[in-house]
Each structure stands twice: as C-alpha cells, then as structure tokens.
Amino acid sequence: MATVSFKAATRIYPGGDTPAVDKLNLEIEDGEFMVLVGPSGCGKSTSLRMLAGLEEVNEGSIYIGDRDVTHRPPKERDIAMVFQNYALYPHMSVADNMGFALKMQGVSKEDRAKRVMEAAKLLGLEDYLERKPKALSGGQRQRVAMGRAIVRNPQVFLMDEPLSNLDAKLRVQTRTQIAELQQRLGVTTVYVTHDQVEAMTMGDRVAVLKDGLLQQVDTPLALYDHPKNKFVAGFIGSPAMNLLDADITEGGAKVGDYVIPIERTILSKAGSDRTITVGVRPEAFKVADKGLPVHVAVVEELGADAFLYGTAEHNNEHQQIIARIDARMPVEKGSTIHLAAVPEKLHLFSTSTEERLTA
Ligand SMILES: Nc1ncnc2c1ncn2[C@@H]1O[C@H](COP(=O)(O)OP(=O)(O)O)[C@@H](O)[C@H]1O
Ligand SMILES: [Mg+2]
C-alpha cells in the first residue's frame, strides 16, 4: 500500500493551447478511496493516465509512496488499472485473463492458480473460470476486469469509469460491491467517474475537476455542505442546487419581489457587484404563506418525498426552481405556491468571481 501525490502535475497535449490537466496538486492517503469527478473533458482520464505512466507529465511530478515515478515506465509503478471497456483477451478463459499479468512476471503456475482462485472467490467468479469473456454477462466481465487487477496485489488501483458499460440497476449494485471490496483490501484507489452520485456514494474523498483545474477536494458531505464555488455547488447534488442571481438590496437579496434576508457582513463582500448568487438546495425551500411565488409545472411523486419543478419571475425572465416538498401535501400543477428559503441553509457566491462568500 502507498500514498499518492500529484505535485503541480501538468499535461499539455501536443498542439493543445491549454493544459488538459493544469498544475494538479492532490495528496491521496494510504488506503484511501479517492474519486476524481467532473464533466466530460475536464481531465479526469488524463490525470489517471499520468499516474499510470501512460501519459507524459510535462511539468510537476507524481509520487507513489516516497518514490518519484514521474518518468518511470508503467511496469515499474506497481499499479493495476481497470478500464471502462475492460480490455479482456477474447480468446483466453477467465482464469487465464486474470492470471496473465502474473504469467508475464514469471510467477509459477501453482502460485498463479492460487492467487486467481483467491480473487475469484472474492468476486464470486469461481464457477466461471473456464469460460471465455463472450459467454459472460456485462457484470461478470466487469468483475473479471477487477479480478485481473486484484491478483497483481498492487500498491494502487486505478479505475477509469469501470461501471459505465453496465445498466443502471447493475451499476448501483456494483458500485457498492467495489466500495466494499476496496475497504476490505485496503488498497489505495483512484477512481474516475463523470457521475456525481457515484462519486458521492463511493469516495472517502472526492476531487472535483473542471477545465483541467482542481476545484475542491473533500469528503462527500463537506462538498455538499460547503461548496467552495458556484461550479461545485451546481455539480454536486441531485436534483441540483437552485442558483439565483439576486439583486442586492437593504438587508438582503431580491428575487422578483421576494427579499431573502442576508447578513450585511456577507453582502458587503460582494464588492461592486449589483447581484449576489444565492444557492438554495431543493430541500432548503419550504412551502410558506410568504415567499417566492412559484408557478408549478410538474410535481414528481417519489413516495416519501416529492420534487416540485416550477418557475419564478425575476427581472422579466422565467427562473427554473426545484424544491423538495412533502409527498402528502396537495400541490396542483398550474397553481402558484410560495416558497421561503431556510436562512441557515443558504449558500452565497460572488456573482463576478463565483467564489463562496462567508461572514
Ligand atoms: N490524446 C489526446 N490528444 C489531444 N488531446 C487530448 C487527448 N486526450 C484527451 N485530450 C483532451 O484533453 C482534455 C481532457 O481529456 P480527458 O482527460 O480525456 O477528459 P475526461 O476523462 O475528464 O473526460 C480534453 O479537452 C480532451 O479533448
Ligand atoms: Mg475520461
């Protein structure tokens, strides 16, 4: 096992004018499950491939434990990678697929068989060892790809969207299995996904990337409760946080005719901006007698909860609003209701810099 450190690691692809990964600083603890998350093209795979030695590091460095591996070839890094498409050898049995890397390392046939069997047991693959990949389901192939990484007993697991080829239900089951397995094995893991729900449910910590730049790294709950900027606020959480550019007034900020009370000390930090970006999670709106008038478009009933989708009028524009409401509360489509934001649950951001504002 080992720590992993990215130290201002940068990747500029030939012909690229901006870095795909720009001075990434990230310290991953021994045994930690670190998730890299962000929209497509933000540099997740590039970061992982730099750690794997599959992509050149143009500036900065990467350490595994206390070894500087920045310019070491992949085979000297003691890592095992699970790819999105699994990259199984079609003509080899499951057992041979799982043991292939060990065979290349010159591990004896007996030891290979033993380690393959151990991994197969962990993954529930004992009965499939003689099958070829084409005779397996998607979920089983995914486990073979995991098994191939496990038998190598590496210092670090790297996984690049390993669940994206599975259907939605299997993806949910498998993400729990991977998280449990990682915890049991205690191997430092760097896991890439574009799916923030996957990131939040699996990671000990989550690193959010955008345009090659690390935005914030923290535990799932800390990201949810204290997003550092507007991007993280909108990216983490489902349904997404409402982000309203409200007009700054005496003692608060105004959306339509509704004034959201905000402390003066925070308002003063908005500088010369005339608006402040108010973030309200769907659960931080309450139906009230007075509040923001919202025209109800759809109510999504989920049994325990319901999500209300509607619009509010603000500066002659329709502003989309999402609120979580009590499922037993009768709200009619096409009606207008009033929503008040719970003051202690507000997230406030500078409209110009998009950074979080605090008192
Ligand atoms: N081999 C490559 N050559 C040139 N540009 C690349 C290459 N691979 C990725 N990129 C670019 O680098 C950026 C980051 O890509 P990538 O790391 O694959 O993003 P992600 O995995 O987050 O979707 C994107 O703008 C992408 O177009
Ligand atoms: Mg990718």
UniProtKB/TrEMBL annotation:
SUPFAM superfamilies (UniProt xref): MOP-like (SSF50331), P-loop containing nucleoside triphosphate hydrolases (SSF52540)
Q: Does the keyword Cell wall biogenesis/degradation apply?
A: no
From the record, give the transmembrane residue ranges.
Answer: none
Q: Which GO terms describe its cellular component?
A: ATP-binding cassette (ABC) transporter complex, substrate-binding subunit-containing
GO biological processes:
carbohydrate transport
ATP-binding: present as a keyword of the record? Answer: yes
| InterPro entries referenced in this protein's UniProt entry, alphabetically | AAA+_ATPase (IPR003593), ABC_transporter-like_ATP-bd (IPR003439), ABC_transporter-like_CS (IPR017871), ABC_transpr_MalK-like (IPR015855), ABC_transpr_MalK/UgpC-like (IPR047641), Mo/tungstate-bd_C_term_dom (IPR008995), NA-bd_OB-fold (IPR012340), OB_MalK-like (IPR040582)
Pinpoint the ABC transporter domain residues: 4-236
**CDD domains (UniProt xref):** ABC_MalK_N (cd03301)
Please list the GO terms describing molecular function. ABC-type transporter activity; ATP binding; ATP hydrolysis activity
Name the keywords, alphabetized. ATP-binding, Nucleotide-binding, Sugar transport, Transport
Top-rank taxon, per record: Bacteria
PANTHER family on file: MALTODEXTRIN IMPORT ATP-BINDING PROTEIN MSMX (PTHR43875), OSMOPROTECTIVE COMPOUNDS UPTAKE ATP-BINDING PROTEIN GGTA (PTHR43875:SF1)
- NCBIfam families recorded for this chain? PRK11650.1
Q: This chain belongs to which protein, by name?
A: Multiple sugar transport system ATP-binding protein
Q: Which organism is it from?
A: Kribbella caucasensis
